[in-house]
Amino acid sequence: MFKKLFSGLKKTRESLVTGMRRLLGRGLLDADTIDSMEELLYTADLGPAASTLADAVREANKKGTLKNKEDVEPFVKQQLVTMMGEASAPLTIDAKPYVILVCGVNGSGKTTSIAKLAKLLQREGHSVMLAACDTFRAAAVEQLTIWAERLGIPIVKRETGSDPSGLAYDAADAAVREGLDVLVVDTAGRLHTQKNLMAELEKIRRVLGKRIPGAPHEVLLILDGTTGQNAIAQAKEFRQSVEVTALMVTKLDGTARGGAVVSIRQQLGLPVRFIGVGEQADDIERFSPDEFIDALFEQEP
Question: At what angle do helices 48-63 and 260-268 cross, to 10 degrees?
């Protein structure tokens, strides 16, 4: 699993850690080097965390506890570990059926992420059903249907333009009747500024709760890792509308901006439950802050 994470973070590692190693070298640490390092941290999309890290380096240098350039990397790594905090409690299937409502903007990788999540749950021994509540786009339903067929799991769907909240209710009803472990509900990709669609998302949430008390048990927001700091603005808006409970950050293998995960975790106070590190159904990782930082700083073979 670590090998896959290491490979997926290659572009971010090259931008952040390899760049830092080239910049630092050896010798006495000076103010100009710290300034240059801060600029480099911003390029990896660490956002406000970049200045926090640079200030910590400056303070340690001023106190005399960080004098040499070669000591900066382990110092920064430890600071990042501290900033990321403890690992969040893992997703625990403690209701039956356990309902996961999945939301996100168009292009965030939502449908593929649902397939990855479904396969992970299958691998862990759970029976899964999908609900194709993105009834605005025929392509979304088709794509989810293809994944359901590949994975051999049932899917509840209707024709384009159908009422998504009605479909969500029917899917919840079916999951109860068939005694399934998990229901994963897809929703229309929407911009966080589209108030009518956000209202529809909230309606789906209410309807699920009417059929299954306590549902949805998890509201998982899919964030595109390549959008960096923009993902944080999206998450804040979604959280106001639908009480997001956890995050999955996708496409980390295709970006040098994976440092945004640090900012996302620091600024939002929401658990990053999963990360996507590739395009295949198996390319999903349960997020571990320590493993994430280790993969960033691991030396290339």
Answer: 90
Written as one string, the DSSP assignment of 181-238 is: SEEEEEE----TT-HHHHHHHHHHHHHHHHHSTT--SEEEEEEEGGGTTHHHHHHHHH
What whole-number distance in Å separates Cα of residue 142 and Cα of residue 144? 6
Residues 6+ apart with CB under 8 A from 45: 228, 229, 256, 257, 258, 259, 260, 263
How many whole angstroms separate alpha carbon 183 and alpha carbon 264? 27
pTM of the model: 0.87
- With tokens 């406000």, the residue in question is 48
Give bridge partners of residue 12 from the DSSP assignment. Answer: none
Which tokens hold the place of 298?
């691991």
Residues in CB range of 241: below 8 A, 6 or more apart: 192, 198, 199, 201, 202
Tokens of residue 150, six digits: 């590949």
- The reported pLDDT for the residue numbered 301 is 61
Residue type at 42 in one-letter notation: Y
**C-alpha–C-alpha distance, residues 201 and 6, integer Å:** 35
What digits encode the pLDDT tens for the residues 210-247?
999 999 999 999 988 877 777 788 888 788 778 899 99
